[in-house]
Design brief:
alpha/beta; Rossmann fold; eight-stranded mixed beta sheet
Length: 147
């Protein structure tokens, strides 16, 4: 299986999660920032995983722009999965999280989710750090993708 893990990251935490997910997947795996992905190359992957920090209840703008570039049926027949990084506060819960919106964008382009969208927690605001155990949890989630 050939897998592409796409991410955006503001402070490096989402990239760490993306790499932990990728490291747990067997087979050929590539990790790329959304701004570096060649849309035409998406057809060469069996599984496409995408994740971004939650930013105002949505994915960061570069991830939103990435999905706008994909043709309407550009993920048809692809297995997809979505994740985000998030802060566990009541105010964030009101606006929602990025992962479900990423999953919706992938489904709109024809993708077939293979696992529920997942969120990984950070602590703090500016210069946030990953909550302890999140890299291990990301790796465990990554292992479920190829099953």
């Amino acid at each position: 299986m050939k897998t592409l893990v796409i991410f955006d990251s503001q402070y490096g935490n989402t990239e760490k999660i993306a790499r932990a997910i990728a490291g747990a997947i067997k087979g050929e795996v590539k990790v790329q920032r959304s701004s570096e992905v060649n849309i035409a190359d998406l057809k060469t992957y069996d599984i496409i995983v995408a994740g971004a920090p939650t930013y105002g209840g949505r994915p960061m703008p570069p991830m939103v722009e990435f999905f706008k570039k994909i043709p309407d049926s550009g993920l048809t027949g692809k297995k997809v999965a979505a994740f985000d990084t998030r802060i566990a506060t009541a105010i964030v819960k009101i606006f929602g999280f990025a992962a479900p919106k990423i999953e919706t964008a992938m489904k709109a382009k024809g993708g077939n989710p293979i696992v529920p969208a997942e969120g990984f927690f950070v602590i703090g605001g500016k210069n946030a750090i990953l909550k302890e155990g999140e890299l291990e949890r990301a790796a465990a989630w990554g292992k479920t993708l190829a099953k």
